[in-house]
Design brief:
15 helices; DUF418; DUF418 domain-containing protein; membrane
Length: 345
């Protein structure tokens, strides 16, 4: 039997999941880097490119940024609780951390129009009132928001004739981000992240329960893509939460194993400086597309470029952490959050 990893290593496992999520986000963003340069619309594809495009829609789109959102919510609670344990004011510290993220996000906007950072900072503010909430209260909010979101999507898909601005609002990406933020916040507050081994049975049930849903929605999205269904974007959103739950339960079960954690250690370094690597992806990606002179970034190009960028980031992260304890953007964010009172360890 492969032994369970320690609590210290389990934090490492969160970095692994964050690093994997960054690659998924990269697969989505690469094509958008071209728009930053030229402003051209993305064409429709067929053949191999069409297959890759559909597979990205099924496997990656909305899912990995949802994983990233989940981890952000968990991280925000951990950050606030540690601040409180030091005698700091957690609510004020969360506000300052999110406002500094907004400032950095606006600066990133001038590099990449599709940056998620300003949205994260604004939606993150909605979590602050939940810091003192009971776990049971968070569960009710999370369950209620999820039901409303999924029901609104199904209504728009099955009954498009009654579509309304309210339903459109209830199905926008901001709602999905908030749901995943809240899920991560709840998970951290309930201390589930340090009880993965004890919760392995529940994780397996989540995995088994969401896998059929993932498969059904995958077939649905595939068929919709083949027939030019106008609802494909809604179907992708519909699959986001169950697929993310399937991915997360699978990842948590896998990274509970010491052998897998050791094998994926380089990816954990990418996740450890996720902020820096997220910013760097847009810079490196835009530079590669410009240097290659690509007029159109096809789905196949996306895969090649994403693998290249991610390989660069793994190498850079390994080298960086041989000399420094944290990434440059992480250090800047930390300084803006705390000022000179906090020193890097």
């Amino acid at each position: 039997m492969i032994p369970s990893i320690s609590q210290k290593e389990r934090i490492l496992s969160l970095d692994i999941i964050r690093g994997l999520a960054l690659f998924g986000i990269l697969l989505i963003n690469v094509a958008a880097f071209k728009i930053t340069i030229e402003g051209d619309p993305l064409p429709d594809y067929d053949g191999v490119n069409g297959i890759i495009s559909t597979l990205i829609d099924i496997i990656v789109e909305k899912k990995f940024f949802s994983i990233f959102s989940f981890l952000f919510g968990a991280g925000l609670y951990i950050f606030a609780s540690r601040a409180e344990s030091r005698g700091d004011k957690p609510h004020w510290r969360m506000v300052r951390r999110l406002l500094t993220l907004f400032v950095l996000g606006i600066l990133h906007f001038f590099i990449f129009w599709g940056t998620i950072l300003p949205v994260y900072s604004i939606v993150g503010l909605l979590l602050i009132p939940f810091y003192r909430a009971k776990v049971s209260t968070l569960k009710k909010w999370l369950g209620g928001m999820t039901v409303i979101y999924m029901a609104s999507l199904l209504t728009n898909i099955l009954l498009p004739s009654i579509a309304s601005p309210i339903l459109e609002f209830l199905t926008n990406d901001g709602i999905l981000i908030f749901i995943m933020f809240l899920a991560g916040f709840l998970t951290a507050k309930a201390n589930w992240l340090v009880r993965i081994q004890a919760l392995s049975k529940q994780l397996k049930w989540i995995q088994l329960g969401t896998f059929p849903v993932f498969m059904i929605l995958s077939v649905w999205i595939w068929n919709a893509s083949q027939h030019g269904d106008d609802h494909i974007d809604l179907l992708i959103k519909l699959g986001a939460i169950p697929t993310t739950l399937f991915y997360l339960s699978t990842m948590f079960l896998l990274v509970e194993k010491e052998r897998i954690v050791k094998w994926l250690k380089p990816i954990s370094l990418v996740g450890q400086m996720a902020f820096t690597n997220y910013i760097a992806q847009s810079i490196i990606g835009s530079a590669i597309i410009f240097l290659l002179g690509l007029e159109v970034v096809s789905p196949l190009d996306v895969v090649y470029i994403a693998v290249l960028i991610y390989g660069i980031q793994i190498t850079f992260s390994i080298i960086w952490f041989k000399f420094f304890p944290m990434g440059p953007m992480e250090k800047a964010w930390r300084y803006m959050t705390y000022g000179k009172q906090m020193k890097s360890k």
